[in-house]
Amino acid sequence: MRTGTLLGLLFAAKSYRFPEEESIYYCNSEMRWPDVPPRQDGSGAELERVLVFARHGTRMPWAERTCWIGDETRYKCSTRAFQGFTNSPSGRRSPGFTRIRGKRGVLAGGSCVLGQLVHSGVQMHVANGEQLGAAYKAALGLGEIPSEPEVMFRSTDVPRVYQSAEALAVGMFPKIMDVDPSNLTIIIPDRQSDPMTPSATVCPRLKNALSEFHDAPGAERRAKQTSAERAVLGRITGRSEEFNTNETRDMLNIYDSLFDCMTTHVCSTVPSEPKDVPSGLGPSGPVFKHVEQEGLFWFINRYGHSDKMRKLAFGPFIGDLLEDLTVRDRRLSVFLGHDTGPAISIMDTMQLTWMDSGNECAKTWPPFGAM
After folding, report:
1. Burial (0-12, 13-18, 19+ Cβ within 10 Å), 329
2. Does residue 314 contact residue 198 with C-beta atoms inside 8 Å?
3. In this structure, is the dihedral angle defined by the CA atoms of residues 281, 78, 164 and 18, taken in order, positive or negative?
4. What is the percent of the chain where pLDDT is above 70?
5. Quick one: average pLDDT of 306-334?
6. C-alpha to C-alpha distance for 351 and 154, rounded to whole angstroms
7. Which helix (H) or strand (E) holds 154?
8. Residue 31: left if φ>0, alpha if ψ -120 to 50, beta else—which one?
9. 175-215: per-residue pLDDT in tens?
10. DSSP codes, 191-213
11. Backbone torsions φ then ψ of 78, nearest 5 degrees
12. How far is the C-alpha of 131 from the C-alpha of 35, rounded, in Å?
């Protein structure tokens, strides 16, 4: 009897997975993270500042591609973006035109633009804002309308990212909807000079460091070790010619693009139908998780390959972060970006781990709406 109980406990221990180990953790299916736990230290210390690093919410596929032969998935988007200007001496403020894609769309379904933020992505960041407001707004002494220098929002120059920042702001500061946009600000640097994600234009030495990484024996060995897997993936998807290579520089596009294909098909948070994927590529099988791990390695974890690489990839943003910390009267700084940064810049550099599992945070692909 004791033996049977022990075996049962061992089996349960082996079969249990922490949330970040689940195949569809990336999808953020609940669209809301657990609430911030209350303080229990009893120290009486007062909160002075909060830094928030987040990834944009759920989006459409970011590139035009054939995921696999026979793919009939269609996408439907209810959320729209609008374009506008403010403070122009001649026109003052635009009416804010709603964007439609016209006849030049790429995605099947007729209503979605490549990479656009979708309804569930908005929901994720409204929820994030609500949770931040409940946990920190009173503690930081923030008012109902965010303003510099107390509150700083920063985003990359990508619509789905600054729209995610807007959704988070709505959740945290609901009365923001009654304010003229000309009185609200968000920092969005030019793409060529923005270090929120690793950039060889911001840090030219990063280009040579990446070349050294791809030419290193370890990278070449990893590519060769997964060649049999890519042969199988090529047959499953009908993309054998593309996958039949051991060139290390091709690994990023192979695995990252395939993982994007799989997640935008199976994730409940992505408005796509049908949710079918070829046999063997579903989230219940081992291939799904392995494609994610390889994509994560070649796309994101390469920047944490060495201290030198971290310095070149993450150093410029960390410099900006340290500068932000010197701003007097700043209470809340919100940085909205991508899976490649800025959150990963902090997690990888500081070698952060999950408190319950002990897993390295940087070894998990940041899910949609991560915060």
Report:
1. exposed
2. yes
3. negative
4. 96
5. 97
6. 24
7. strand 151-155
8. left
9. 999 988 878 899 999 999 999 999 999 999 999 999 999 99
10. GGG--SS--TTTSTHHHHHHHHH
11. -90, -30
12. 6
pLDDT tens, position by position, 226-238: 999 999 999 999 9
Question: Residues spanned by CATH 3.40.50 within the chain?
Answer: 48-88+95-201+314-363
CATH class of residue range 48-88+95-201+314-363:
alpha beta
Structural tokens at position 131: 């949770």
Instruction: Give the SS3 label for residue 307.
Output: helix
CA separation for the pair 366, 58 (Å, rounded): 12
The token pair that represents 300 in the structure block: 């994101």
Which residues are CB-contacts of 359 (< 8 A; sequence separation ≥ 6)?
18, 20, 21, 353
DSSP 8-class letter at 135: I
Q: What is the pTM of this model?
A: 0.92
Q: How confident is the model at residue 6 (pLDDT cuts 50, 70, 90)?
A: very low
Is the predicted pLDDT of residue 13 greater than 50, yes or no? Answer: no
Report the alpha-carbon distance of residue 338 to residue 368 in Å, rounded.
Answer: 9
CB 52 within 8 A of CB 132: yes
Cβ proximity of 367 and 25 under 8 Å: yes
Q: How far apart are CA 258 and CA 162, in angstroms?
A: 26
288, 258 Cβ separation under 8 angstroms? no
Instruction: Say how far apart CA 198 and CA 337 lie, in whole Å.
Output: 11
Cα–Cα dist 111/79, whole Å: 9
Chain position carrying tokens 């050294």: 212
Say whether pLDDT at 118 is over 50: yes
pLDDT band of 283, cuts 50, 70, 90: very high
Cα separations (Å) of 144 from 38, 177, 267, 325? 22, 11, 35, 23
* Mean pLDDT of the chain, nearest integer: 92
The amino acid at residue 232 is V
- Cα torsion angle, 183, 52, 34, 80, sign: positive
